[in-house]
Amino acid sequence: MRNLQLSLVACFFSLSFLGSVRAADLAVSKTIHIGGTGRWDYISCDPATHHLFIPRSDHTQIIDPEKGTVLADIPDTRGSHGVAIASDAGRGFISDAGGVTVFDLNTLKPLGTIETGQGADAISYDPSNKSVIVMCGRGQEASVIDAAAPIDSAKAVHVPLGGRPEAGVADGKGHVYINIESTSEIAVVDPKSGQVAARWKIDGGEEPSGLAIDVEHHRLFSGCHNKVMAIIDTETGKTITTVPIGNGVDACAFDPGTGEAYASCGDGTITVVKETAPGKFETSTVKTQPGARTMCVDPSTHTLYLPDAEMLPATQPAAGGGGRGGRGQMKPDSFMVIVVSRGS
């Protein structure tokens, strides 16, 4: 009887990690031609409206992916990198060279700017503290902003990180986890106190970039530039394992509905990682397009979106284009969003 009980428990835990869909079902279903000027960085999705938010060097576009149309274009976001959505505050926040540009989620109109540390890059929202966290690379800090504060009086709290940050994610329970690229660590930040609560070494992972979280199972998924994803237990701070991914990772995402983590890589692949039993992870690969290195997932539709553009050879630069990683410059008006979804 005891052996039967143990088997049933093991089966229950295994099933709790299994999703209802297979990673092999994922494939590029279409591309949305957007065009226009400007490079891009992190793409974000608002699951409530399904709108996509895409920084484009000096302006930020809001896209309706179903219609393939530009709903709004927020100007004067020079050096923009990412967008955080604070639905409960009715605001969006764009990290750019001036710090953060705040806009209204209903009207999609800019409301003002808030100063942050130097080199505002990736940006995240922590609903438990109603805080926007901006990862500032040159300043080696996280700037924490009250999402609901009056814009003209809002002041960032500066949290020194002791290294150059990349992506950050919140667990909704008062902690924000931040990849420290220059030291290959995770910094655990308490936005309420404005302090680093812990630092965890990433075993086997170097120069972490993208980061995602499975809150229910206490997992961090850190995409590293030595072509691995490090999987970290948020209860112990220990690296559980590493799994191979593609080359040139920039973003990671997690879909709680499917139990899958994703790493988008500049070599034109998405690595899909799934915990099929406690501590056991399986991977598969989805082909996208070279250069499609940033990504977001809409958890309500289980659809992935990746910005990209056609690139000219390095020997044939395009006037007004944007250079990237030795691959030449953007072909004019070729910017697109690649859609990865499930087969019917």
Task: Output the CATH homologous superfamily of the domain at 50-201.
Answer: YVTN repeat-like/Quinoprotein amine dehydrogenase
Instruction: From the 3D structure, determine the CATH topology of the domain at 50-201.
Output: Methylamine Dehydrogenase, Chain H
Radius of gyration (Å)? 20 Å
Structural class: mainly beta
**Coarse morphology:** globular
Strand content: over 45%
Please explain how this structure is put together:
This protein is mainly beta. The chain has a domain at 50-201: Methylamine Dehydrogenase, Chain H. It is built from 1 helix and 28 strands. The strands form 7 sheets. It has a 4-stranded antiparallel beta sheet, with no helix packed on it. A 4-stranded antiparallel beta sheet has the order 2-3-4-5, with no helix packed on it. Strand 10 and strand 11 form a beta hairpin. It is globular and about 45 Å long.
Gist of the model:
The chain has 344 residues and is mainly beta.
Task: Give me some keywords for this one.
4-stranded antiparallel beta sheet, 28 strands, globular, 1 helix, 344 residues, mainly beta, 51% strand, disordered N terminus, Methylamine Dehydrogenase, Chain H
